[in-house]
Each structure stands twice: as structure tokens, then as C-alpha cells.
């Protein structure tokens, strides 16, 4: 007799003995259920299903909360103290930093990849305009996630007449490769920006600002770097970090913006860490600072971290409006930190911040036009 048949007979005999009589398969299942206690039922019917639901809806939160266990913090930056006052001469400012005043300032190129941030670009270029030799802007007909889009800058170009004589503008066709990692498309566009900089006429020793449109260096920071000899050839800029508007001050930890002394054949436009040096208090990073709710929806679907849109209701306009006014996270994520202390400290809504001191001057001089960016004005246009 086969072993499998013998084993099956033994199981049947076991359940006949437990149930006290010879039973059918259906009756045997009922008998098995009768032998389970209430705790087992709770585990099977409640704990396990709810556990799976919790992982499905909040698995990302769990991953981020446990980040200190699986990812070490990056190497600390070497901070460079930043000295400035409008009544202190440039020679004195250079000396305070341990640098020397140049006989003439370096040329400065401000280069950006452009998506649709018309207001942020206006505030940025108005802030930097006195000190920029050439503005370089590249846009494409595709987002990083291969969504077709218009050339928003070209459509609104007349708004930027104040930089037209110093503007190098270029376009590049998107590759529209569905399913590809968005960071590949982003890298492709940054390589194209390198070529556009050459067309703009950048030369060795010129300063190149590498940052996203919403990472705005302060004018006096760029003026300092162009007039002083002695700064590191590459320096990251420590920017005050804001979300949705200048009402929600997240922290002082934005660092991706950088300024480079250009070297032909070596300098490459990038948005990652390229040096250990970080110049303190050098400007503003206003992330997701849009006028219209539809702009939030577009950005959430368009930029490289589109995987964070885990559920379609994240894109609901009413939800987005409530998130903005509460200072909550658009993606319902935990803070991206490397220690449990920092994660816990930043959990929950961002506190309202009512100071509008030391913001870009153009923003304050045109407050009526950009009221939505100032404290106390969280309601957005529908779009």
C-alpha cells in the first residue's frame, strides 16, 4: 500500500477518534472548527486580515520609521559660517570669511531645468538678476515620468523680458519611455543642459549655479561668491526649507543647491552631493509652492518620485487643499530622517510660521500678486 494512502487513513482515524464517530469530510471540517478556541478565531479572522491591510496601507510608513535600522546617515557636511549685513563692505565680508577681495567679479551662470513653475522662476530671476551674466533654461515636452506637457516657459516668455538679452533658452524632445525609471529621464535632461551651457559661452573660472527652480540662492550669497577669492571650487548652499508657502518652515536642512567654479571637461550639471562644504543660510527652498491645486496634481504625477502616489485619492483636489492648510504631507509619509529622535520630532503637521522677514525682496514688493506664498494665505485657486 502506498505511503500517502496509509498517512491519509491515519488522519481519518484521528479525526474519527476526536469527533467520537465516523465522520464525512464536511463533518470533519465542522468538527475541526469546533476544536479551535476563541483566541485562534480572533487570530484567523481579525489579526491576520487587519495585519495585511495595515501593511498595504501603511507599509511605507513602517519602512520609513525603521530607516535608522537599515540606512546610516550621510557623512556630515563641513559648515562654512556665513557673514552678511547690507552695511558691511564686500572687502570686509570677504575678510570675515577668510577670503580675499577680487579686482573684478567672476561671471555667473544660472542654469535650470524648467517644468511649470512660472511664479517661482520669476521670484528667483528677480532675486538674482543684478549678479547673473547669463540665464540658461532648458525645457522639454515631457515630464520625468513621460507625461506630455506644453513648453510653459515659451508660452509665458514675455513675462521674462527683463532677462531676454542675457537668456540662453533651449528645448529638447522627451523620449517618452513608459515604465522607465524617472531618474533616467532626469539625467538625460541634465546632460542636455551641459550642452546648452557651452552654447551660452561658459568658460573656466566662471561660477555656475546648479539648483532646481524652487531652490533660490539669496542675491547677497551669489554676490559674495563672485567677488571673493578663496571659497571652495564647489560649495553646497544651505537653504531654509519651506513647504507649500513661506508659512510652513520645515527646517534648515536643504543642501542640494550648489555653486561651482566651472572647469571645462570636468564640471557636470547634477543635483546630488558633490562636496563636503556647505555655506550656511544661503537662501530659500520652497517646495510645492504653487498657486493652483491643479499644479499640485501635475507635479505629483510628473516628478521623479511619482511612486509616492500610492492611492488615487491622494490626487483629490479637496484633500490637497486640506493638506496645504494643515501643513500635512501630500503623500501621507513619515519624515525622511536617519534617527528615531529626528523622525519623532518631525512627525505630524508642520507648525505655522508667521515671520516674513528676510524673504526674497521681489516677493515682498509684489505681495498682492503672490499673496498665496505669504503666511496666512493657504487657500489655493482651483485651476
UniProtKB/TrEMBL annotation:
GO terms for molecular function: beta-1,4-mannosylglycoprotein 4-beta-N-acetylglucosaminyltransferase activity. GO terms for biological process: N-acetylglucosamine metabolic process. InterPro entries: Glyco_trans_17. The chain crosses the membrane at residues 38-57. The keyword Transport does not apply. Keywords: Membrane, Transmembrane, Transmembrane helix. The keyword Transmembrane applies. GO terms for cellular component: membrane. PANTHER family: BETA-1,4-MANNOSYL-GLYCOPROTEIN BETA-1,4-N-ACETYLGLUCOSAMINYL-TRANSFERASE (PTHR12224), GLYCOSYL TRANSFERASE, FAMILY 17 (PTHR12224:SF22). This is Beta-1,4-mannosyl-glycoprotein 4-beta-N-acetylglucosaminyltransferase.
